[in-house]
Specification:
23% of the residues are buried. The chain has helices spanning 2-9, 12-20, 25-36, 41-62, 68-77. It is mainly α. It has one domain (2-77). α2 (12-20) packs across α4 and α3 (25-36) crosses α4 (41-62).
Length: 83
């Protein structure tokens, strides 16, 4: 589990970039929603990174392009984490 947690935490810089990007406004919206609902800032970023990791993993397993719609749907479900 430690290795998995480390991989997710390594995605936090990517999440921070997405929060600033005009291409992915839904990431900042998700972050704001999580923080407003009581999540700590770092935890909110980790939750988003978990969704990014999940979609990246599915992309690799299914040998397909990144599915932005699926990623957005995962974010909408937070704080429920992907299984």
């Amino acid at each position: 589990m430690f290795e998995e947690e480390s991989l997710v935490s390594n995605l936090v810089p990517a999440v921070e970039q997405q929060m600033e990007s005009d291409q992915t406004p839904f990431v900042k919206k998700t972050y704001d929603r999580l923080v407003e609902s009581g999540e700590e800032e770092g935890e909110a970023k980790l939750l988003i990174a978990l969704c990014l990791a999940d979609e990246s993993n599915r992309m690799f397993i299914d040998k397909r392009d990144f599915d932005l719609k699926r990623y957005q749907e995962l974010l909408e479900r937070l704080p429920e984490v992907p299984e």
